[in-house]
């Protein structure tokens, strides 16, 4: 299946714009959670180990929730309504974190919120890939608008959090606006999803079952999942502790989002050329390069770098996320049957993002508690290196065909 198909130009362009807006809206609040939630927990007085545990709770729910919602979605044969339910519910729950003061309360809300939050990106991917034949273009050029949503959100908050871009180093303003903004964007996104056109009809009832079990007996697929599970476990340390790392360097709240945005800007640049690079490199080598880039960044952040070096190191996000994400989505979409598309994306989200995130969050939290954040980054860089070695055991170009554009289905 090709993700670069011809459609009537005006209709294709209009649909592509609507899908771009969907990615923008779904990732804008994702930027808020990634950048500011752990900082909020730190300022509530939670220890590094407790922060790791809260992230592990979110990741455990990401193991349970996406396959469940993928199953429901494939059973219904309709992706918009389940996604809309998850968007509006997660938007309603997130502001409740403002009222939490105890670790127990934070853990309860984290579980409820994560159950609704975790499947949203995977279901959006499934929805977009279903619409892609009519929208034309390639997956990467639509997905980069999610990265743009991430960047724009962080830059917007950088105008006023901690007193704005001219705030003194280390200034700590209120994070209340981040919780309110999350809820408002989720409300808008819910309305937008319901306005998207329906996808191609598929037979309801085709979900996790015999075909999925047959896929899981594939040696290549097993190696792929092992490699990505190790890799995501290792790279999770960056997401848990990067904002806190910046705090330790004296970076103001208003500038933390800028540093996150530098990484995502590099990711956007990579996605612009991913459709041409993937057929040349192949899935195997794009995965290996992506994980190696993530390992190098963790190693660099294990030291207290000058601010300029931190900014340069964020360019490795083009590999750590951009290359890795495009290659994994391509692999899954080329492997899983059309009628199991939602289940395929959500199963990957559960096993790799969810389980890897759970183990990685807990592991990085405990390592940071024992050896400091620098020690945690260093040890996780070593684990990411092991993931690269496992990727190198994958079959070459013929077995992992990359004759499709990024995200190829």
Task: Describe the protein.
The chain is mainly α. The chain has one domain (9-391): Up-down Bundle (Growth Hormone, Chain: A). It is 76% helix and 0% strand. The chain has 13 helices and no strands. It has helices at 9-43, 48-76, 80-93, 103-117, 120-135, 139-158, 176-195, 210-215, 219-248, 253-301, 307-313, 317-335, 341-391. The radius of gyration is 20 Å and the shape is globular. The chain starts with 8 loop residues before the first helix and ends in an 18-residue tail after the last helix. Residues 1-8, 163-172 and 398-409 have low confidence and may be disordered.
Observed structural traits:
409 residues, mainly alpha, Growth Hormone, Chain: A, 13 helices, 76% helix, globular, disordered N terminus, disordered C terminus
CATH homology superfamily: MFS general substrate transporter like domains
**How many individual helices?**
13
Per CATH, which architecture? Up-down Bundle
Runs in which pLDDT lies below 50 for 5 or more consecutive residues are 1-8, 163-172, 398-409
CATH class: Mainly Alpha
- Rg (C-alpha, Å): 20 Å
- Which fold does the CATH topology refer to? Growth Hormone, Chain: A
Distance between the terminal alpha carbons, to the nearest Å? 5 Å
The total strand number stands at 0
Averaging pLDDT over every residue, what do you get?
Answer: 82
Helical content (DSSP H or I, runs of 4+): over 70%
Structural class: mainly alpha
Q: Strand-residue fraction?
A: under 5%
Shape: globular
**Describe the biggest sheet?**
none
Q: How many discrete structural domains?
A: 1
What is the helix/strand order? HHHHHHHHHHHHH
